[in-house]
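Example 3.
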Amino acid sequence: MRLLILFLPLLAYSLPAEAGMLTGIDERQAYLEAPLQNKKDYHACLARELAMIASLEKGQHDTEVARRFMDMAEQHAGKAGGRP
Amino acid sequence: MKRLAFIPILMLSACAATPFDIKRDELAGARQAIQAAKAAGAERCAPKLLAEAEAALYHAAHELDETGQHPDETASLIAAAASKGMQARQIAIRHCQPKARKKPEIISLSGVRFATNSAELTVDSLAVLDKAVETLKKRADIRVEVAAHTDSRGNDAYNLALSKRRAASVYRYLVEHGIDAKRLNAHGYGESRPVADNGTADGRARNRRVELRILE
């Protein structure tokens, strides 16, 4: 029980906001890009660029860095009116 | 068991770390280029280029974190961030800045006078207006506004009405001397647009004036 309580906040924190159970970089990228398709504003463009870098880093097996870039991409997607 | 309690805390603190250090000295040039682009309005006028520059900056910051692992890639990212930032700034300066309003060209009718408190042109004024007619015939492509102004003596309403009558008087003269009425309109501004100090006789004389403002 104690262990469960200790790990509960970690579990909650590690899930991407409003992304359900999407945890893979590729899944998150696809989820992020769909609503941004016709958006050309600065935050939408930056979200796409950062997601692209995340994918690149994931390809180089640097998953932690990929996750950080994807987090940033999701923040800008949120500002662009897409999915945060 | 107590040791286990530290595991999530440690993991959480790792998650909360700031993403990338873009304040490094190596990135100063690129950072400044991006800041200058933003200041020029590139977020609105060159969003894609600015986003590419900023993403390259973050990517370069990450590569610099991996000390010396990909020096060529890092240098190329820094150069791309700076170059795209500068391009975004140029585009913003060219297309984003509010255009300075062109000052309307004015043909001064200095010498046009009226009898006191009247819209009747003095005889001396006619020569000046004849020259204006010649000018308007030569420049047949322009439309003008006949703009009449008064000094500030008397009340506003009276001055406005007087200036309207004076503008109409000049308008009539120009039309009677062959200028197409479609090229003209008349406007009285009263005392609202002084060009000199109304506190002196000389200033008031300069403020009492009629001009032709070129409309197009």
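Strands of chain B lie at 106-108, 144-149, 184-190, 209-214. The CA atoms of residues 112 and 125 of chain B lie 4 Å apart.
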